[in-house]
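@channel sequence for tomorrow's demo:
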Amino acid sequence: MKIVPNLVPVSKYSIKCPYSMTPEFIVVHNTANDASARNEVAYMISNSNKVSFHYAIDDKEIVQGIPENRNAWHAGDGVNGQGNRKGLSIEICFSKSGGKRFEEAEKLAAKFIAFKLKEKGWGIDKIKKHQDFNGKYCPHRTLDMGWQRFLDIVKSELDKLKGGATMAEKNVPSSWAKEAWEWAKKEGITDGTNPKGAVTREQLTTMLYRYHKQVAKK
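structure tokens (generated this afternoon):
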């Protein structure tokens, strides 16, 4: 996976990343503005605020600003907080306005997080949100769209990297789709098999037709 390096200079370590670190989990953030990943990292490096993060991700690229073996000030839980001292921080860009650019940035972030999980031998439980450490509603747009939905996307990407999900996993709908899936089975719109499979036009038309007949009965 291609990563664009723009690392903070050693002269600014005392401000941006003063402590050595062995990361133990990943912390997800949304930037709350509409700057690109390159601009996010460039701005972080240029100022003298005690605010920093390891990676920024937009719809096109992943930019690294802090080495993974240094801490970053991102979780708002203090000098000795677990988030600040143990977390590998990822900022997802374009979250202020949302829309297509943010959705694509989130997809790329999910791929990158899955890559990191596999690289480090971690599971989905190693993904945290900023909110877990100081209560801030962040990653705000990802939370609005559904945190479990995002975790499911990462898991799907991780399964691909590991060679695909098991047959049992493929036959279980994602948590965010479970209620709708059970309803569709109950109404006879789907037979309940292969919930994660691609849908052909024939299959879609058939399901719409079944739904139409159900509505017509009522």
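heads up for whoever presents: The radius of gyration is 20 Å.
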